[in-house]
Amino acid sequence: MTTHGVTALTLVTGPEDVLVERVVADVVARARASGADVVRLDAATYEPGALAVHASPSLFGGTTCLVVRDLHEAPDELQADLLALLDHPSGDVLLVVTHGTGPRGKKVLDALRRRGADVVQCPAVKSDRDKSDFVQREFAAARRTITGEGVRALIEAVGRDVRELASACAQLVADTEGVVDEAVVDTYHGGKVEATGFRVADAAVAGQTSDALRLLRHAIATGVDPVPIVAVLAGQLRQLIKVAAAGRGSSAQLASSLGMAPWQVDRARRVVGHWSAEGLAVAVQAVAAADFEIKGGGRDQVFALERAVLSVARARSLR
């Protein structure tokens, strides 16, 4: 059922807040455009009976859009009020419900689906493959193009947080023209802490000892924490091992089975051919020891990290 182009019941599920907020904002904008009043109700502050009050017909007529956030945290009273509203729906009410994750609120979820709610899923954007797909969709939606290397550079620079990643995409779309590639991304985000850590790791796994140490010392001098750098080193070595063991296949096929992005598979393939199994084993052991020392097992974090970077770079030549 729709009212002036707006679906009467909308269920937004999934834990990715950025995506949830976008869907809700879109529904609310369309509801307002149709002349509806918007009322927002949060599970954490809900007062029993409030839903029925706001859903009651107005003396002046018109439609009300009720937005109920965080059903997964809803008290029993809110769930009961939602079920009562769904049992006796009103043509003057548009209902939008968000649910993050977990079993709480299942009866309401089932009732919404039975009544034909428009269900929009917002799954978590966690893996680098998820983030690559997210960036590509952001640029496609803006009718812009970003290269695979541009995607990689952007994720390495700001990809730990989806909200920051979305903001970075918006900035690049607004401030640049034409195709966005690695050089463009580096102009805007190359100085970020995350990007610095990846540069250190890239040089180390490429066997570029002097560059790796120079980049590391610059990173430390500018205040970069050793913990994320050793984490990036460990992550890149794990990717090399995965790709080495995976055998043949297209980048897209391997990316799907390994939980990696295609550009990560391509990069690992370019690098892993220069590594032996013995070299990878030595590098992994060196990074594991550094991780232990940096997180409290040793006295000098910087020395431990330098030793690990040096060991990784030298391990590349072991045969």
| Annotation field: number of helices | 15
Describe the main β-sheet briefly.
5 strands, parallel
Low-confidence stretches: 1-5
Question: Got a strand count?
Answer: 7
Strands side by side in the biggest sheet: 4-5-6-3-7
Structural class: alpha/beta
- Can you give the mean pLDDT? 89
* Percentage of residues assigned to helices: 55-70%
| Beta-strand residue percentage | 5-15%
Return the string of H and E elements.
Answer: EEEHEHEHEHEHHHHHHHHHHH
- Compute the CA-based radius of gyration: 25 Å
Q: So what's the overall shape?
A: elongated
Description:
Helix 9 runs antiparallel to helix 10, helix 9 (193-205) crosses helix 15 (301-315) and helix 11 (226-246) runs antiparallel to helix 14. Residues 1-5 have low confidence and may be disordered. The protein contains 15 helices and 7 strands. The chain is elongated and about 80 Å long. With 319 residues, the protein is an alpha/beta fold. A 5-stranded parallel beta sheet has the order 4-5-6-3-7, with helices on both faces.
